[in-house]
Amino acid sequence: MGIIETVERIREQSLENQKRQQPVKMTSYRCSKCRDTTWIIVDDKARRCQCYKIDKTKKLWEASGVSIEQQDKTFKSYIPYSYDTKRARECGIEYFRNYNERKNTRYNSIAFLGQVGSGKTHLSIALAVNFLNREIPVVYMPFRDTMMNIKMNILDHEYYQKSLEKYQKAEILLIDDLYKGKITASDLNIMFEIINYRYINQMPIIISSEKGIDDILKMDEAIGSRIYEMCKGMIVEIKGKENNYRIRGCRN
């Protein structure tokens, strides 16, 4: 059904309801405002119903690879307990607030690096939560699982290209636990194809990694230098076991 037909249908329903002066039974509709058409009439003009935005956001979550359950990982729920963790949270909030000004520049990315258990993934997903709730697509890329999956299907050229394009062309790409585990030449080749594409096309990345920026540069300078430039001014490196919240409470 086209927009015009939908609007007419809603208008007719509204007039009929007014004549009857009784509420419409909504038991068979998910949304009582639009009766599942996703359109409502406001000042004689058709407008998208709020349910449309909610459904669209849910679909973005499903496509992103970030589960709905991870919505509890927010900036508010991240409680800093040191100078480094406070700076990491503030940097994430600043990045989100200034995203529109940064997104089309060379320095449009952010990296949370260093100490295990310091909440780097939490902050990365907090950014994804905020972007997805603003209907800005984020694709989640868990490094180890993604590398394993792509390498298992590397001989299937069509699948390989589609897999790469998913991460190359995402509006925002979240790479979680970059360089986690034993890294092979194949891992580096795949990462170069993804990072280089995004570097050339100035497409943002959010990175979490246990590696520091010097370690990332040593792993592969071509990849590392691109990441360094893209994240310039937004590289947060957390150091010291005192910033591992998993053992912090046990040692106090």
Describe it for me?
This protein has 252 residues and is α/β, with parallel strands linked by helices. The protein has two domains: 3-48, no CATH class; 56-251, 3-Layer(aba) Sandwich (Rossmann fold). 51% of the residues lie in helices and 13% in strands. The protein has eleven helices and seven strands. A five-stranded parallel beta sheet has the order 4-5-6-3-7, sandwiched between helices. A hairpin with a 2-residue loop joins strand 1 and strand 2 (45-48). Helix 3 (83-97) packs parallel to helix 5 (120-133), helix 8 (185-200) packs parallel to helix 10 and helix 9 packs antiparallel against helix 10. The termini are far apart. The model has no long low-confidence stretch (mean pLDDT 85).
Domain count: 2
Tell me what portion of residues adopts beta-strand conformation: 5-15%
- The pLDDT mean sits at 85
Task: Classify the fold: give the CATH topology of the largest domain.
Answer: Rossmann fold
Supply the CATH class of the largest domain: Alpha Beta
The portion of residues assigned to helices is 40-55%
State the end-to-end CA separation. Answer: 64 Å
**Biggest sheet descriptor:** 5 strands, parallel
Please work out how many helical segments DSSP would assign.
Answer: 11
Give me the CATH architecture of the largest domain, please: 3-Layer(aba) Sandwich
Radius of gyration: 23 Å
Structural class: alpha/beta
Residue stretches low in confidence (pLDDT < 50, at least 5 long) are none
Morphology: globular
Succession of helices and strands: HEEHHHEHEHHEHEHHEH
The count of strands amounts to 7
- What topology, given as strand order, has the largest sheet? 4-5-6-3-7
CATH superfamily of the largest domain: P-loop containing nucleotide triphosphate hydrolases
